[in-house]
Amino acid sequence: MRMDLQYFAQEKTEKATPKKRQETRKKGQVAKSSDINTAVILLLVFIFLFVYAEVPGEFMHHLFIKMYLHNTTMEMNVENVMSMFASLLSEIAIVLLPIMLVALLAGVIASMLQVSILFAPQAIKPKMSKINPIKGVKRIFSARALVELIKAFLKIILVGFAAFGIIWIYVDDLLHLALLNFRTGFYMVSWLTGIIGISCSLLLLILSVPDYIYQRYDHEKQIRMSKQDVKDEFKKMEGDPRIKSKRRQRAQEMATQRMMQEVPKADVVITNPTHYAIALRYDDQVMQAPTIIAKGTDYTALRMRQVAELNKITLVENKPLAQGLYDGAEIGQEVPEDLFRAVAEVLAYVYRLQRTQAT
Question: What residue intervals traverse the membrane (predicted)?
């Protein structure tokens, strides 16, 4: 029976806590589909190529002219060949740079859509377990690897059919390709390549949606916690001084806010005048003696005075009485008996003042 209880305690059946999610996110363990990244990159690159196709087309046109007309008369030596290749590489880099930048931007956008902004240096730390051959073999022959293999075959088949269908539609134009000049033929092939690329990218994007759903499910399954893990984490958080400090601060803020809501109900606020403030209320119908409904020191006392002035509550400066009330009773308690007389004199003064102002 004890073994059964231990098994159920260790079985990971509970959803991950916010703290566990934050820790796994710091390690780079997030629900992310690489298929979405691939599909978005391909889609944006091919859309960009529709606009940009003229630039590489003109480049290739001038390149062929340069290679077959100008470079054929060039003296073939080491310096000339190196200069030619350096010039060619720089021109190719300039032409391809915008395409690479679009691919980079598309990858960043796709990643941010899935995991928002994430900086996880722990994910790129070298780990010996990653080069463990035994674990590598287990990953190759795992159920996850089988799922990835099936996905790859499915994508190849569907993308192949989509590309073949588009080519079949434009087969007549392709058969007349040899009759066209270089520039017209290049633009036709570029346009057809773009159509195939965008169609296949959209297909891959549709196929990536189930993969993303599966990745989220698998991620939630991987970060599940046992009941014992949840209990241990709760105990650890309870013992964290920072957590305790934040809770005390929050509790103090809430208590102060409740006190401020009580100050407008007071008959008088007795001050020190700067260090202490005590709000008193007396209703002879329900109270046997005046009651302290709020009290505070320093900043809290300042806020109490401000609230009292805003609500036209009388402020009375009496240093000994203020300190005596602050030390002698808590909020919600009646004033101590030894201070009855002093408090009665203050309330009598307040009531006379209110009658004077009323007349």
Answer: 36-53, 92-120, 152-171, 191-214
